[in-house]
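A quick aside before the break. I want you to see a complete sequence-to-structure record at least once, exactly as it would be stored in a machine-readable document. Don't worry about memorizing anything.
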Amino acid sequence: MEQPSSPLEKELPSSFQGNRDFYEENRLQKLGRKLKEEPLIPLGCAVTCWAFWGATKSIRSGNSYRAQQMFRMRLYGQTFTVVAMVGGSYYYNSDRILRKEYNDLMQARKAQEKRDAWIKELEARDREETDWREKMAKVTEKREEEARVRRAREEEKERDGGPLAKAVKKLREGVQ
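That is the input. The structure line, written in tokens, reads:
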């Protein structure tokens, strides 16, 4: 099988095709997706917070036995959370790799689109400048032609002496 020459030619991973939510998500959607992917982590955090709150409440009421139980519960909740994080990390590793690959492809594609738009803009500006220079060359050429015609008329007038000189010349010929 032929390898693509650039990341832009590479197809997107097949597991992401058709999943519109995967392609573009905001922060709230990402949080929701993470909670769905790894629901044990928020559960462990909730248990830890509940145990810590219970321990604080027990200390204030003076029940040291219940406070000790709650501190142990907090420890178990934190351990559960860490185990859930490590387990989820191993379990969802392949999805994270695919997501990173997808993000890299999308960044490369956006950079290429931006570059193409920039080149298109430069080409348009170049065409405009070329058209303007051609137009200015025609205007300059036309002005030079008009100047040549004007000089030719002035030289002719100088040779002939102008309309007054022509009239005098005709009178002289008529007198002779």
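Two observations worth writing down. Residues 153 and 159 are 10 Å apart (CA to CA). The chain is about 85% helix and 0% strand. We'll return to this after the break.
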